[in-house]
Design goal:
By secondary structure, the chain is an alpha/beta fold. It folds into 4 domains: about 100 residues, no CATH class; about 110 residues, no CATH class; about 100 residues, no CATH class; about 130 residues, Rossmann fold (3-Layer(aba) Sandwich), CATH 3.40.50. The chain contains 13 helices and 21 strands. The strands form 5 sheets. Strands 7-5-3-2-1-8 form a 6-stranded mixed beta sheet, sandwiched between helices. β19, α13 and β20 form a beta-alpha-beta unit. α1 runs parallel beside α6, α1 crosses α7 and α10 crosses α13. The longest helix has 22 residues. It starts with a helix and ends with a strand.
Amino acid sequence: MTQAVAVRRDGDAFQARIFWRKAACLLDPLGPIIRVGFESGPKGFDDVWVEYARERAPGDHEGKPIFREHTQCKWHVSVNDFGYSDLVSPEWINANRFSLLQRAHAAQLAHACDGTGARFKLVTNWRVGQADPLRALINQKSKSLRLKDLFDGTGDNSKAGKIRKLWREHLGVDDDALKLLARTLALDTDSTSLDDHRDNLDLLFENRGLRRVPANESSFVYDDVAFQWLSQGRLEFDRASFREACRREGLLDNGGKGRLVFGVKSFEHPFDRLEERCTVVLDLVPHFDERLIRDQADWTSTLYPKLRAFLQNAARSNPHLRLVLDAHVTLAFAAGSVLNIKSGRSVEIEQRTMHRNVWHASDMPSDPAWPRWDFKVESIGEPTGDIAVAVCLTHDVTNAVRSHLAAALPQVGTLLVASPRCGPGARSVVCGRHAFDLAESLAQEFNRQRQGASGAAHFFVAAPNAFTFFLGQRQPGMGRSTLYEYDFEGANGGGYRPSLSLPI
């Protein structure tokens, strides 16, 4: 019985923390979210819902606005897999009669009969099975279904055809009706632990002017408050009613005034949209197809000018900046080059590591025990030629860099490999001060190696964006620098491609 109670409490905490992730955005008067609901809405998707301002609503995979998003939270104490057949099983959602797919269909008919304007999202800590054909049909940016792949014109015996056939027969609909439902459905895997959810909310609350809960306190008052409001019949909030409810509970800090946070994104985080927690966001996502840039020339002609104007405008009236960079390594480096060490601006970076933390150049005293660099220098051509730098903080890119140099950069004479003495990994950089120190020492080693050389620099970076930003702050002292992006998805044959050369 004790274990069952603990599991139920964890499930409630998961739902409450999803609610607060959305509801805290109501304290931003310029944010896109204007209403949030808890335990209300269409049956089966009534855990949490949000309503967006019509002029600032996010777009679906076709760019059509989503005005309401209804979320069903499904928490399990142990992680497992699910597949397309589970969506037609009532038992999978602990129901007696109706499956998740049937409830989604009923919600779609009631709230998005033409397949637009609403999204019905399952958020679960279970994963879509590695071998299940549904996995390949989920768009990793939006967690919606890839309609072109699901309705690909194949017969019922194909992988996509088996999914369509099962879902059609279960719902008693044809392909046209199924496509309308599929347009509104999203399947989101959120494997974030409850503790990590709490850590993430801590930063969000600081940004939105809500009282933070010290990490050493076992209880988390926000979990209970949501269900207290539920018991009082307060199921829906707009900006005014939510602020008043928080005030009465003593949850507002600093008068409910949040800090300015500037976001830059070139890809969409699966469940943490920057618009919902940043003061202003530079959205570069339309220039990319997943992680691959649509037009290579955009790095120089469009992206860098937009980024420079955005950051210069932010820095003009703010001597202290907090940045969130859900962006390619090139843009993190470029951001540092704009807000370089002579800019006179103090910059904090929200860094996603094992947890989400705020990194700053002086956030902790320097510690001799922190991992330092292990530098290796390889002569691969004329010593007066270009120099390539392989930064291996999160993983070892040395072999991939060597292959690219051999195939595409014969003018490179020296390869400088920078690896942490502890070995690459998610824990190789401890904090902002450590990242800042590593960037400083790498720049110094780079300048030592390039003495007497007149060539350009080529940077291949596998590192946290905060480090890359700090390294970019030193670009003016490192001369002409070209960044490279790795084709992780293999959409362009794999390997590296040049992106941006600085200065422009």
